Automatic annotation (TrEMBL):
Gene3D superfamilies documented for this protein: 3.10.620.30, 3.40.630.30
CDD domains in UniProt: NAT_SF
Signal peptide limits: none
PANTHER family named in the record: BLR5614 PROTEIN-RELATED, CONSERVED INTEGRAL MEMBRANE PROTEIN
Name of the featured protein: Slr8037 protein
All residue ranges annotated as the N-acetyltransferase domain in the record: 36-200
Source lineage: Bacteria, Bacillati, Cyanobacteriota, Cyanophyceae, Synechococcales
Keyword Metal-binding: no
Key words of the record: Plasmid
Protein's UniProt keywords contain Hydrolase: no
Membrane-spanning ranges: none
Amino acid sequence: MFRWFIAAIEDVYLPVPVMHLLTSNFAPFPWQHLDYTVVQLTKQDSNCLQALFERCTDFFNLTTGQPPASTAAEAEFVDVPAGKTPEDLHVFGLHHPQKGLIGTIIAVQDYPEAATWWIGTMLIDPVYRSQGVGSAFYQAFERWLAAQGVTGIELCAIASNTSGRAFWQRMGFEEIRQTPSRSFGQRHHIAHVYRRCLILLTRRAEFESYDPLNSLNAYLCKTEVINWQHPDIQALAQQLAAGHETPVVIAQACFEWVRDAIRHSVDYQMNPVTWRASDVLQHKTGYCFAKSHLLAALLRANQIPAGFCYQRLSIDDRGTPYSLHGFNAVYLPITGWHRVDPRGNKPGIDTKFSPPIEHLAYQPKLDEEADFSAILAEPLAIVVTALQTHATWDALLHHLPDMTPNTATTIGLYCY
């Protein structure tokens, strides 16, 4: 029953044979994409599920040292943890009308305790990985559970599946323990157990877009800081969008312009300290925070939802003192939220726009550094205040805004 201790995926690419589902039971949770449908699989769909398993041989080889058994899919519909019955088991499929079954989430309800669901397996066809499909599939599943009052989701990922563990951490899971090494087929692995507390979702609603149709409006608003209605911003937004037809290409044009055309205040030792988007554009300079304000304004002027993200970093890479670092997230078709950092490149920093792969300026490494997972509709107040309070770049350099991980957690920013 190794499937109740693992979940995740490696990036390899294989051809996709099409097999059609025999059942058409729509799963209770919605999938807001025209090209995909979530279905409830039954044992009649074993052949389709088996074909998906065989396209995901990399996962089975990594875990057990051998390809999936010919009866692996059939076993999914009867193999449950001790104390549970097949009625507690839910096998969801992600179905493409032309390509067939391209993904699955297999979970048991009320396990290992009431109001908690355990994900035994999540697989995405290799052809559809690294496109945001897996993230969106999981998030739709999570929204459905949260709406029913489920308070937690747990799962395990083997230690050697580093990309799988990183995926679950990006989804907001926190490691709660590790198991001793145990056998998985022909291999032995330490398993990392993760949990995500859904009871917190109602307090996170203002920070994250769990329902794109209803909550993205906050990421399009104009404010005193993100004054995208300013004529100069409107003119530049139209200029950058000219000749481009898709939000992805327009977003890339806006990102690259802010990254390259606006000079970082410290890199170029430039004044004044700017905070309002139109002022950043006027003076062509700004701290990372200010550059994120202008990028958000240009994106919103093009009706592309944009938010704000933060990290906590050591200023000298050795420890105290620490400072916040600001950048953006942009909401794109298919990919969903994608984080980008327009702070500006220099030796050792090479930020890019390449969804769904992130190319940020920094990666937290020290214990007191943090990557806050929330996507905010407005810049943090302490950031705006710091920018407004100091007139010169060097004055602000000695009073950069900071927030400890504990404080960030209490206000809903969270970190991983």
